[in-house]
Design brief:
- The N terminus and C terminus are likely disordered.
- By secondary structure, the chain is an alpha/beta fold.
- Helix 1 runs antiparallel to helix 2, helix 1 runs antiparallel to helix 9 and helix 3 runs antiparallel to helix 4.
- It is built from 28 helices and 20 strands.
- The strands form 5 sheets. An 8-stranded mixed barrel has the order 10-11-13-14-15-16-17-18, surrounded by 4 helices. Strands 4-5-3-8-9 form a 5-stranded mixed beta sheet, sandwiched between helices.
Length: 802
């Protein structure tokens, strides 16, 4: 039979193990024998006894039970100490009974002390060690106050036991000192045993398992039997102690105790339930013990209680005082810790949503505002769900912590950064001059802080964010309203692919949004919308071979409205389909007009997520191309990478259908997320359009790493046979560098601003030549690139620029 366990637990080798069945059979026989012996003692005449049954029979019973306990320890591979030591303790008691039986042969009463006393007293130290080790194994995670609870309960129980058991001291006067010492050893040992049992039970409140319950019951019966025997032998109970009931209990107590203690080592503890909520140690036993201590001390004032009991009672109350002091100190520390945890996000260490609400409530409290202005920034990470999906939630949690650290480092002064939940953060600027300029500057710093990619394993991951800005008291007069305003602005920034947006009451308020949605609906069917076109320069041929169509809204009273404001409204109001239909019709009509005069420029048109997944998209594109007499290769549809990843399978299906149709597809804002590298090879696309966050830093003095990143991305695109377009070109240095890196097309204010169809030109002035050689995949040409240089601009050619 193989036995393996720990801390009082063993695993059976199988329910059908013959050895295990044999152990169970032995214990069954012992239990039946114990019940039979109890019946015999109860039913036989008072004073009658049998050396064979009461002596040799009980001795054999106890030796077998203690042997089984020792066998359990020997059969274990680990954690065998407790059953071995406890088995030795039981064997000592059994040998004591055997010695007593031998000494009593012939009707001779053994002297005190005797050989049996030596074995009996040997039981106590082994039992103490076994109990301490057992309790320690069950309570490894308890703190000092919990142990004091056990001490209080044990001392109180010991005091109560001593109040009765130690009355034997008064009747030991005049005996030899050795006899007195032996007589005193039993109550002392019993008090200590009871102290351990009651104290251990107090520590394990809510976690007692069958092995401990049997151990506690066995020790308690042993103590009660020992105490009853002492009282019986000293005639302190009068008729009761010497009566039949007392005799029965004295005879049955020790074999019962030994059987229970032996069985406890063979019963498996069972596996702990990991979802079970741990219970705190109870206060019933310590409370009763403290009350007992008080009672004993009170009775001691009348001289009815011995000094040992009085001393234990005093120790009980002292332990109560120490425990109370530790409880107060722990309560104060716990209160501070709970207060900190209540307002702290456990993942990032930042303030949490509750802390944010507390700050906003205090800021908007009556009389607290006076002249102070407040700025609120709502930050929502873009595409963070894909990190959890691709790398797992533990990695996502780690990245959130690093993002929180970056955002905190980008803030200044008394700004408060909190994590609202999920991938959402919030910033409160409480400076006295917190206004639009300061809020926008803070939003820019936060956005810049996320430009540096995060290294996950061997993959560089870029994580963007959309930030909504709201001001108080300009936009809101309470915290809830301020958060709502910032949330609306954030949503508009996200839909417009802009890093941040400031709340605009004229566009973002509920009434205004409904009004403008209605006006936009009318504008789509009137002359209020127009298209501007931004050229794309072929870096190999030095010609404008493509343009991007960018929509504008000329409002009759507000003038030119940037797409950053009305495109999110169109998406929210369900007007994006109509708007895309209008843009596609106007753009292809203009493309056909250019083709008619010999300018074979390709037209790029942006479509949204709702457009891509619209079942009528293919029919719309086919009909528009046929309507304007254009071939399918004249059209390039631009789609952001986040749009593709949000519903990857359906997006891939639609892209495959567009490819079969012959329409080109460009992944816009490539690099704003990270999942492109994961899914790019599976997408039927023709072009990558690098996000300006790649391009803008290239001309900095320390931009070697950024340049290598752009080079690697261009090479990746070419390896996948994709055309690579760079947007956001602001100067000639960036343009020359991109051309040297093998980029195919370039777009930006340096090449040409978005202008109306009548203003765009496909011819360039040549004030000075620039000769270069370029190698790109299958291309290897030497070209002369000359063109006029417009005034540089801080803007990078966004589709949302007027």
């Amino acid at each position: 039979m193989r036995i393996n366990g720990g801390r009082g637990q063993f695993r059976r080798s199988g329910s059908g193990d013959p050895g295990q069945r044999g152990i169970l059979g032995v214990y069954s026989v012992l239990s039946v024998a114990l019940i039979g012996y109890l019946a015999l003692v109860v039913l036989r005449p008072v004073g009658q006894s049998s050396t064979l049954v009461d002596g040799w029979g009980v001795d054999a019973f106890e030796l077998i039970a203690s042997g089984l306990c020792i066998a359990n320890g020997l059969g274990r591979r680990t954690h065998r100490v407790v059953p071995l030591i406890l088995g030795i303790a039981l064997a000592c008691w059994a040998l004591g009974d055997l010695a007593l039986t031998i000494e009593s042969l012939g009707g001779v009463t053994p002297a005190t002390p005797s050989v049996a006393d030596a074995f009996y007293l040997g039981f106590f130290p082994f039992a103490y060690v076994a109990l301490v080790l057992f309790i320690r194994g069950e309570t490894t995670q308890l703190m000092a106050p919990d142990w004091l609870d056990g001490a209080v309960a044990g001392l109180g129980a010991g005091a109560l036991c001593a109040a009765f058991a130690f009355r034997l001291i008064q009747h030991s006067v005049g005996q030899p000192w050795v006899g007195v010492a032996v007589n005193l050893a039993y109550p002392v040992g019993d008090v200590l045993l009871l102290l351990l049992v009651v104290g251990g039970s107090a520590l394990m409140t809510g976690r007692q398992r069958p092995p401990w319950l049997l151990v506690a019951a066995g020790i308690t019966i042993n103590v009660l039997g020992d105490t009853s025997n002492l009282l019986h032998s000293s005639h302190l109970l009068g008729g009761v102690g010497g009566g039949h009931l007392g005799t029965v209990f004295n005879q049955i107590a020790w074999p019962t105790s030994i059987l229970l203690l032996s069985m406890a080592m063979w019963i498996p503890r069972g596996r702990p339930n990991p979802v079970r909520i741990a219970q705190l140690p109870g206060f019933v036993l310590p409370g009763l013990a403290a009350a007992t201590g008080l009672t004993i001390l009170y009775l001691g004032t009348f001289g009815h209680i011995n000094r040992v009991a009085t001393g234990l009672a005093a120790a009980t109350l002292l332990a109560v005082v120490v425990r109370t002091g530790l409880s107060v100190r722990s309560l104060r520390a716990l209160t501070r810790e709970r207060q900190r945890l209540a307002i702290t996000d456990h993942l990032t260490g930042l303030g949490n949503r509750r802390h944010l609400f507390d700050v906003l409530d205090a800021a908007f409290a009556t009389g607290a505002q006076d002249s102070r202005r407040l700025a609120f920034l709502f930050i929502d990470l873009d595409g963070f769900k894909q990190i959890n999906d691709s790398f797992g939630h533990p990695t996502g949690d780690e990245i959130l912590g690093r993002i929180g650290a970056r955002l905190a480092a980008a803030l200044r002064g008394s700004a408060l950064l909190t994590r609202v939940g999920g991938d959402e953060f919030a910033v409160v600027l409480t400076d006295a001059d917190a206004g639009a300029e300061q809020a926008v500057a803070a939003a820019q710093r936060l956005s810049d802080a996320l430009q540096e990619p995060f290294l996950i394993d061997v993959v560089n991951v870029r994580i963007g964010a959309s930030i909504g800005i709201a001001l108080a008291p300009l936009h809101a007069g309470d915290g809830a309203r301020l958060m709502w305003c910032a949330d609306v602005a954030m949503y508009r920034a996200k839909l417009a692919c802009s890093p941040f947006a400031l709340y605009d009451h004229d566009f973002d308020s509920g009434d205004s949004r409904l009004q403008f949605a209605d006006q936009l609906h009318d504008a789509i069917h009137s002359d209020q919308l127009t298209l501007h076109y931004q050229p794309q320069l072929d870096l190999h041929e030095g010609e404008i071979l493509a343009v991007e169509a960018l929509v504008r809204w000329w409002h009759p009273t507000l003038g030119l409205i940037a797409p950053l404001k009305f495109l999110p409204l169109a998406e929210e109001a369900g007007l994006m389909g109509s708007l895309t239909r209008w843009v596609l019709d106007q753009a292809l009509a203009q493309c056909a007009a250019w083709h008619a005069v010999g300018q074979q420029a390709r037209m790029s048109v942006n479509i949204s997520a709702s457009d891509l997944l619209d079942p009528g998209l293919l029919e719309l594109v086919t009909n528009q191309l046929a309507l304007h007499g254009l071939s399918s290769d004249a059209l390039m549809l631009e789609i952001t990478e986040t749009t593709l990843i949000d519903d990857f399978e359906n997006s891939r299906r639609v892209l495959a259908q567009l490819q079969e149709l012959g329409v080109g597809v460009s992944i816009d804002d490539f690099g704003a997320g990270f999942t492109s590298l994961t899914y790019l090879s599976a997408l039927p696309v023709d072009e990558l359009k690098l996000d300006r966050s790649f391009i803008t830093p290239m001309c900095r003095p320390d931009a070697a790493r950024e340049i290598e990143l752009v080079r690697a991305t261009i090479d990746l695109g070419h390896a996948l046979r994709l055309r690579v377009v760079a947007e956001g070109i602001e100067n000639s240095e960036t343009l020359e560098l991109l051309r040297a890196l093998g980029c195919d097309l370039a777009q930006g204010y340096f090449i040409g601003k978005p202008v109306s169809a009548g203003q765009i030109t496909f011819e360039h002035q040549h004030p000075h030549p620039a000769h270069t050689s370029s190698t790109n995949g299958s291309h290897q040409t030497t070209t002369t690139l000359t063109f006029s240089v417009p005034e540089p601009s801080k803007n990078g050619g966004s589709r949302f620029e007027p």
